[in-house]
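Below is a filled-in request sheet from our internal design queue. Each sheet records the structural input a requester submitted and the sequence that came back. We keep these sheets so that new team members can see what a complete request looks like end to end.

REQUESTER: design group, bay 2
PRIORITY: normal
MODE: inverse folding
CHAIN LENGTH: 293
BACKBONE (tokenized):
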């Protein structure tokens, strides 16, 4: 009986498979096939881009090498640091870090100490590597919540919170070493959650230590500088680079099929094709009419 059930089951299974194949042929469907394997050695598929994208990408690349020439605002900031604190406001990519690097170079040559602070660990690590390449590993240290290396170096790169903590420690006894403190991304003073750290760092830094504050997004620079003068008792000059960023941004949208589409049209408005795609994706399917049974 068991053998008969097994043979009957096998026969029924084959019959059902034949039935499914014949029904697919009648409906005009293609028989199921396995997906072809794609080899990693296959050449990448070339995606044709539109003229708009070609225009968007035109001119992108490394410029030809030329001799470096500082901008007037960079030289003005360096000259002002000899006598006062300086707040530099300039668009991203215009060379604010060059000012800090050149002033640090002058101090290190004289055997003096300096701090370079930033609000982010990633940015701090990046500046640490940059300054090591510029000044040598023996003269640069780092202090963050995760790293503590070469803390006796002439130049310490650290997060603003760590620098503020060092100021707190100096209040309990001892003197805060250094001749210059660079506060990168100084607009974090206006941050609702972390702004008090920048406020405390500015107030507690001894007046003998020069402050260099860098930012691209401070709109009320004169008011900010006046407050620094009031709480520190040291004049704070403002150096501004007018105009837009020297390296313009170009925005594009990457489609699932690896094509690019300009995010903005020629009028500077959001690309209507992308907006239409978003509406199509989020559109809800029509509801079927309700039936009364």
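RETURNED SEQUENCE:
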């Amino acid at each position: 009986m068991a053998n008969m059930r097994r043979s009957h089951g096998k026969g029924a299974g084959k019959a059902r498979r034949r039935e499914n194949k014949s029904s697919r042929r009648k409906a005009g469907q293609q028989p199921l096939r396995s997906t072809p394997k794609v080899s990693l050695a296959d050449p990448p598929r070339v995606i044709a881009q539109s003229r708009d994208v070609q225009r968007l990408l035109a001119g992108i690349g490394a410029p030809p090498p030329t001799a470096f020439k500082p901008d007037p605002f960079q030289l003005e900031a360096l000259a002002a640091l000899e006598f006062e604190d300086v707040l530099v406001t300039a668009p991203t990519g215009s060379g604010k870090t060059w000012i800090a690097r050149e002033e640090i170079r002058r101090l290190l040559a004289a055997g003096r100490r300096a701090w370079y602070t930033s609000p982010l660990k990633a940015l701090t690590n990046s500046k640490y590597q940059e300054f090591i390449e510029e000044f040598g590993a023996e003269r640069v240290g780092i202090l963050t919540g995760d790293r503590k290396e070469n803390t006796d170096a002439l130049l310490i790169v650290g997060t603003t919170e760590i620098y503020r903590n060092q100021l707190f420690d100096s209040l309990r006894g001892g003197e805060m070493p250094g001749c210059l403190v660079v506060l990168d991304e100084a607009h974090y003073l206006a941050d609702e959650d972390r702004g008090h750290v920048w406020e405390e760092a500015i107030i507690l830094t001894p007046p003998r230590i020069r402050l260099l504050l860098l930012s691209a997004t401070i709109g009320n620079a004169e008011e900010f500088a006046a407050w620094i003068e009031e709480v520190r008792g040291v004049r704070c000059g403002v150096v501004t680079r007018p105009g837009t960023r020297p390296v313009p941004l170009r925005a594009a949208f990457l489609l699932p099929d690896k094509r690019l589409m300009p995010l903005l049209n020629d009028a500077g408005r959001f690309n209507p094709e992308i907006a239409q795609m978003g509406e199509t994706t989020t559109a809800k399917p029509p509801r079927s009419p309700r039936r009364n049974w």
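SHEET NOTES:
- Confidence is low (pLDDT under 50) at residues 1-8.
- The first strand starts at residue 85 and ends at 89.
FILED BY: M.R.
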